[in-house]
Amino acid sequence: MNMRPIYRPSPAGWKPEVSTMKLEHATWQEIEIYLKPDPVTGASRGVLLPTGSTEQHGPMGLIGTDTLCATAVAEAAAERAEVCIAPPLGYTPAPFNMHFPGTVSVSLPVFSALLTEVVTSLLSHEFGFVYIVNGHGANIEPIEALAADYPDGRVRYRSWWALDGVNALRQSLYGAWEGMHATPSEIAITQAVHRVIEPGDAAVPPEKLSAEYIRKHGGDRHGPPDEHRAQFPDGRVGSHSALANAKDGKKLLNMAVSALVADLKRLHAYSGQ
Predict the structure, then answer these.
(1) Which pTM was predicted?
(2) Is 18 domain-assigned?
């Protein structure tokens, strides 16, 4: 995706020459122009913040899957909605996967503190809102806690799979085989955006999860890392990753992006149409 970060004042002093800016690719002057309120409505434009993880995702999944999915959704929505996007936060809590090589986990207090300081920094520059696009279950609780500190709605969040229509599409594509981790939906998105890994032994379905297990372990509330690997030795948690394909990934990505853009439009806080 080509998102050139070149912003200059338009004759109206509001709309940029290009539609999307990656924060890390911008100069401070470009951000200063981006932050100018709409001269007609007075609205201030917001910023998207993807959050994910750096953890194993089974034999077919990339270690950065959660971050890659959240970022893919956020980048495409940012381009369509003309909203700035901040660099993703990819070092987050994943202690249950620490017996799988490559996983990087930080404690919940460390992630909560980092998230709070990043969001506080962004809001201090008068971004109209920070919209967190999440891709990792263990992030939900600290994100919700932070958003609750902003009853004015300046901090908003959605996990990409919870955007309107996405869960229904996941279920229609994979049913109970969606599972909980290394899901075919997230693998499909990374296949569409990055690369495809052949299933190998993962062509064999994993053991299906009981409704009781899903209820108890939602939000990535899993056990100690040694027990977790012993119970799920290849990293899949009830998810039949081999059902994934890039075509499904494009469908899921388009659904999530359309829903996120619609949500951003409802905020009336970007230059828009």
Answers:
(1) 0.91
(2) no
